[in-house]
Amino acid sequence: MKGLLNKLYNENHLTREELIYLLDNLGEKDKEKLHELAYNTTIKTYGNKIYIRGLLEFTNYCKNNCKYCGLRRDNKKVERYRLSEEEIFSALEEGDRLGYKTFVLQGGEDPYYTDEILVKIVQDIRDRYKDVAITLSIGERSKESYEKLYMAGADRFLLRHETATAEMYERLHPGMSQQNRIECLYNLKKIGYQVGAGFIVGLPGENKETLADNLLFLKRLEPAMIGIGPFISHPDTPLGQCKNGSVETTLIMISLTRLLLPKALIPATTALNTLSSEGLEKGILAGANVVMLNLSPPEARKKYEIYKNKEITDIHQLKKIEERAKKVNFYVDMGRGDYIDFNGGIKYV
Ligand code: SAM
Ligand code: SF4
């Protein structure tokens, strides 16, 4: 085990067999070592800084039916909303006033948002805030649509691959195709976005092979950002009776990801913070270096219920984040927090 951990730390690579062996045989002391190596790697790559993002959940309409998600189209109990342009800009204004330099616009796959409407929103944001990073997290679209949004001023795109196991992907995403999702990720990369992928830990049917395949998928794709969070069941979904993902496994996945991809920006996710009151601290100690704070208007937050009892830290609670990060020797960084190999945002023509 010591040899495998050293190899991972020094070479940032393990084979599928080695990863599965590691997951099968990781003892308590090994886990401590794994987290320590990951934490040191973050510091070596980015310093002991936690980057802050402002997350605006602008629509909870969704045409998809992902079996784990509370926003799925068949969940008729959700009160649906779309923020008006005024609401979007008043939220961003507050974020800007507080010094936020990354805005993440997230939503369900809402057909109301044609390219024309979205391009206009992105352009307006870019016009007002020249130096902020604009991140989109709005699901699968055509390559042309991603291109238009990039040219309008978007810099980053979060699209988790959710699970690398084909059978599991098809089972949990009725009417969707894994091939298309992967194609979207490669299209986004080709266009020039800083791309975020990632997966859910603890989906029903998961095993060590699934976890290893998720890590190897990320290693191949080499995204700039990687979101890994535990599954949390939502009673009004087909997975309402399934048990939640494990915090411990999530932390192990964060550490392995940090060691396989030292340059990745890895959030301590909201889901991790929901299942553990010390999710942020544990996440940092395992190799995370990003946190997203909520920018959405209070009425919208409650309705953006991906899962129950979501732990929401909003943009005004930066002090709290500062204090918590300090406990694990990390400091809040309010900069854009770009990927280390970022080309400065030179748009292709
Ligand atoms: N609709 C876009 C998409 O799916 O890419 C963005 C919004 S979606 C709500 C953001 C992420 O929430 C998904 O990528 C998924 O990993 C996560 N998610 C949804 N339901 C979840 C649950 N019950 N537990 C944990 N994560 C969940
Ligand atoms: Fe829609 Fe995203 Fe939820 Fe799937 S995960 S139902 S695409 S909001």
Description of the molecule:
By secondary structure, the chain is of the alpha/beta class. The protein has one domain: Alpha-Beta Barrel (TIM Barrel), CATH 3.20.20.70. The chain is built from 14 helices and 8 strands. The protein has helices at residues 2-11, 16-25, 28-46, 85-97, 115-128, 143-152, 166-172, 178-191, 208-221, 247-260, 270-275, 279-286, 298-303, 318-327; strands at residues 49-59, 102-107, 133-137, 156-158, 194-201, 225-230, 290-294, 331-333. Strands 1, 2, 3, 4, 5, 6, 7 and 8 form an 8-stranded parallel sheet that branches. The protein starts with a helix and ends in a 16-residue tail after the last strand. The protein binds S-adenosylmethionine and iron/sulfur cluster. Iron/sulfur cluster binds next to loops.
Q: Radius of gyration in whole Å, from Cα?
A: 19 Å
CATH topological fold name: TIM Barrel
- What is the number of domains? 1
Name the CATH superfamily assignment. Aldolase class I
| Helical/strand content category | alpha/beta
Shape: globular
Number of strands: 8
CATH architecture: Alpha-Beta Barrel
Figure out the total of helices.
Answer: 14
* Average predicted local confidence, pLDDT: 96
Indicate the percent of residues in helices.
40-55%
- Under CATH at level 1, the class stands as Alpha Beta
The N- and C-terminal alpha carbons lie at a distance of: 49 Å
